[in-house]
Design the sequence.
C-alpha cells in the first residue's frame, strides 16, 4: 500500500513514527498520525486544516489528544457513557495516578530493541491507513495523499475523530473544502 502514497502522505507516516518515538509510545497510533498532519505545510491536508482554522486552535486540539492519552485512549463520549453507568473516569484516572504516577494509564514506553527503535502501527493507525485506501479507491483516485489520511481520521470512531469534530474538522467539512461536495453547484457556478 505504501507505494501508492504521495510524498505528503509518506511525510505524515514518517512524522507519526517520530511523534510516537518522542512520546515513548509502544505503537504508532492515530493520534500520532494527526499530530504529524498538523506539522504539514504546503500539502492538500495542510490546506484543509488552515481553511478550517485549526492552526489557531492547535494547542486546544493537542490538549484534547493529551487528555485522551492520559485516559488510556478513552474519548469524551466513552467517559460520558461510563458516567451513565456510575463510573467516574476522572476519579479512576486520578486514583491510578496517585498510586502509580502521572500518566500511568498512557501507553507505556517500549523497551529498546537490539534491532532499533522501530515501532509497529497500532490497530487504530492501521485502520486509518486502510480507510484512506478505501477512500481513494471509492473516489476513483490513484494515490493516497495526506488529505485522504485526514478524511480517514475523521471517520474512525474514537478520541481522535471526536477531538477533530470538536475543533470543526468533520468528514463533511473536509470533503466540502477538498471537493466542493455539499455546495449548491448551481450557485457555485453562477458566482
Sequence:
Amino acid at each position: 500500500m505504501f507505494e501508492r502514497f504521495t510524498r505528503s502522505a509518506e511525510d505524515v507516516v514518517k512524522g507519526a513514527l517520530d511523534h510516537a518515538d518522542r512520546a515513548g509510545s509502544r505503537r504508532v497510533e492515530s493520534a500520532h498520525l494527526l499530530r504529524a498532519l498538523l506539522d504539514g505545510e504546503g500539502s492538500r491536508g495542510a490546506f484543509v486544516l488552515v481553511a478550517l482554522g485549526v492552526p489557531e486552535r492547535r494547542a486546544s486540539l493537542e490538549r484534547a489528544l493529551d487528555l485522551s492519552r492520559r485516559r488510556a485512549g478513552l474519548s469524551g463520549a466513552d467517559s460520558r457513557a461510563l458516567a451513565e453507568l456510575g463510573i467516574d473516569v476522572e476519579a479512576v484516572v486520578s486514583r491510578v495516578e496517585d498510586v502509580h504516577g502521572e500518566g500511568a494509564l498512557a501507553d507505556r514506553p517500549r523497551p529498546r530493541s537490539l534491532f532499533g527503535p522501530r515501532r509497529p502501527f497500532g490497530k487504530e493507525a492501521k485502520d486509518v491507513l486502510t480507510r484512506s485506501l478505501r477512500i481513494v479507491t471509492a473516489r476513483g483516485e490513484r494515490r493516497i495523499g495526506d488529505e485522504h489520511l485526514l478524511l480517514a481520521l475523521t471517520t474512525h470512531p474514537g478520541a481522535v475523530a471526536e477531538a477533530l469534530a470538536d475543533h470543526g474538522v468533520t468528514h463533511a467539512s473536509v470533503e466540502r473544502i477538498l471537493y466542493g461536495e455539499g455546495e449548491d453547484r448551481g450557485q457555485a457556478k453562477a458566482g
Remarks:
- The CA atoms of residues 69 and 153 lie 16 Å apart.
